[in-house]
Amino acid sequence: MNKPLVSVLMASHRADPALVAAVDSILNQTYPLLELVLVDDGAPGGFGLDIATRIQRDRRIRLLRNESNQGLATSLNRAMAEARGAYCARMDADDISRPHRIAKQVAFLEDHPQIAICGSAVCKRVSGRGHRVQFPRSDAEIRAMLLFHSAFAHPSVMWRRADFERINLRYEESFLTAQDYELWSRALGPLRGANLPDVLLDYNCHSDQVTAKRYKQSIAYTRAVHERVVRRLIPDAAAEQMALHARIAIPHDAFDLAALKDAEQWLLALIEANERQQVYDRRALKRIFARQWAMICGMSAGEGMRAFARYLASPLSAPLGSASAAAKLFARCAFRRPG
User: 42: helix, coil or strand?
Assistant: First the structure.
């Protein structure tokens, strides 16, 4: 077999019909030079006859087996170590890569040698319904978004293997969730990233994917990354400031007017710190913060027009540059009343 240009990395600890569909979406890519490095992460009884049949018929599949469940990060590190392609592409065991995904990402990376990591827009599907999810396209905005959360859809990403090996980049195996966010927080310093505007992956969300225990676990690991990225700007950030940052990054309940004021002051403090240290591109940082500010003000629409007034009065709203964002927020606030 010719040395594959792209090594697709996939791991699963169970066998189900979704895995078969995910594998087929890779084998049916329009791009021919690929291998699928598939890790059986301790699946009880293995992956079953359907996958075994595909392995027998298609020599592009390389199956690795863990004797017991090792977790996603460990399994992906093993797959990376076995990869032979010039590029590595991630793929989850319950998603669908669209037929031209690999071809489009390879073409982009070949044309942009300065970019090491390439993601894409995705179609997020919940209970059969799908909606487009777009991620920042430029390296500057991708880096700025990392202050809040991952700027890539993990299963959509492709990267240059040589760049990862040059700086010994691997998944942090102590992270049981948010492994990708942690990885990008380290990678997007020495390396540059981009997202394609094309929807190249159908990202399937299932009701049984996130248990209460796993959700709390994910929040804890995400906050650990917040600590790292925030302290690049404000090394002595207090615990209450980090708690506020986490609430801004992952808002689950409405901010009252006092909380909005605290959030605004914290975001402005981060912008001021960046003015001194120049860690992030100034304009990109302000655009990302403007979107986050609009989102938390929107979640506070129950405060009525007072929330809209707070939004407009803040310098954080200026860089958004879109009258539609203000109009949507106005409509939400105008038709709600304080509780």
Answer: coil
Residue 304, token pair as written in the block: 């009525």
CA distance 100 to 103: 5
Furthest-apart CA pair in the chain: how many Å? 67
Which residues contact residue 179 at a Cβ distance below 8 angstroms, ignoring those fewer than 6 apart? 72, 73, 76, 171, 172
Q: What is the pLDDT of residue 63?
A: 96
Residue with tokens 């676990």: 217
How much is the pLDDT for 15?
83
The span from the CA of 207 to the CA of 277, in Å, is: 43
Cβ atoms 39, 92 nearer than 8 A = no
Going from the N-terminus, what domains does the chain have, and what CATH number goes with each? 6-205 (3.90.550.10), 231-334 (no CATH)
0.90 cut: is pTM over it? yes
The confidence score (pLDDT) of residue 338 equals 47
- How far apart are alpha carbons 196 and 105 in whole angstroms? 8
